[in-house]
Amino acid sequence: MIAFQQKILNLIKCFRRQWHLFSNSERTTVCGADCMMMALQLSMAEVNKQHRGDFTVSLSDVLENWKYLLHDKLGLSYENMKEPENYADVKQAYHAFLVRSSMLDLVDIYQKSSGLELISEDESIAPVQLLEFISGIMNEQQTNDFVLSAPGTPVKQQGQENVKVRILAKKCVCSYLSLLVNSKDDLALAQILNVPDRGLGREAFTKLKHASQARKMSIFLMATSFIRTVELGGRGCASSLFDPLKIHIKGFSDLVNFIDKLQEIVGEILNPRVAGGRILSTVKMHLIKGRSNGDPFCQAVEEVVEYLDLKIKNISDSQHEVSTASTTGVSPAR
Where in or outside the cell is it found (predicted)? Predict the structure, then answer.
């Protein structure tokens, strides 16, 4: 299993090295298994809104579409599976979502790599293996969710809660990094919109999403446009399109200005090793601000940041040419 996971990692590394063969934008990011399912769920909600008038999506419908979508994209037989209702619309909405978010999912990267013969025979992956890998991640997450909600002894419950907190901390830190690289990544934005607490709940996200769809831009760029309009002309200058967002000015402003702060670090510090460390430190302080030192979330953030900082150091040490390239006109995303 570990050897196969290494093949998946090598596949992603291939994409990062040869990004220009996969996408027109070097800021394209990878949509992993968990994000694939989230993107599918959001796509199904959009389709249900069109057909039924509401965004409600049942878990059973998501799992049915998920299984069918994976078999369809991988070209595997699904003769014994019934095509889900409105599947063609869901599939179209799913791929449109990835395009808007400047993302490629694991199956797209796998198929593109195979078509271009970028992977050696020793590193090759069979479609059914990729299906098992992606489905395995999904099943593991479902099991974790079940365990976390099941009754148990206080010691077990505490351990399960710690796992849940670590997963949340990793998602938050990585989502800030993803949004910094790819401002169109709506999934990353959804993860950190209200982390730390900015008073931006589901209602604020829904309003922002509707406004972004009306303007045909990403959710984060919509928030940025709104805040820039307010900053330049004051609260009263925003058009009627912005009216639903006005009560959330403070929360959106906090988010946009913080991402601006991270972007300034990228622009000011050319050494990727130093810039990466500074960004991680800034994100860490932002996430744990106002929390006590003994807070499990604070401890989890500390561990995640330490781990990612070490990864950046190892990459920097093993690829000395990166430091040279960063001074020759290569963009911060590279």
Answer: Cytoplasm; Nucleus
Burial string for 265-280 (b: 16+ CB within 10 Å, else e) reads bbeebeebbebbbbbb
Ordered by where they begin, the domains of the chain are 1-135 (no CATH), 157-317 (1.10.486.10)
pLDDT in tens, 112-148: 999 888 888 888 899 999 999 898 754 444 333 333 3
Beta strands in the chain (DSSP E): 29-31, 103-105
**196: cis peptide before it, omega within 30°?**
yes
Q: What is the pLDDT of residue 137?
A: 55
Name which of 168, 234, 223, 196 is nearest 34 in CA terms. 168
- Do 77 and 161 contact (CB within 8 A), yes or no? no
d(CA 70, CA 88): 14
Q: For residue 266, give the nearest of 141, 148, 193, 179 by alpha carbon.
A: 179
Q: Is 35 exposed, middle or buried (0-12, 13-18, 19+ CB in 10 A)?
A: buried
CA distance 8 to 133: 9
DSSP assignment string, 115-153: HTT-S-GGG---HHHHHHHHHHHHHHHHHHHHHHHS---
DSSP code of residue 280: H
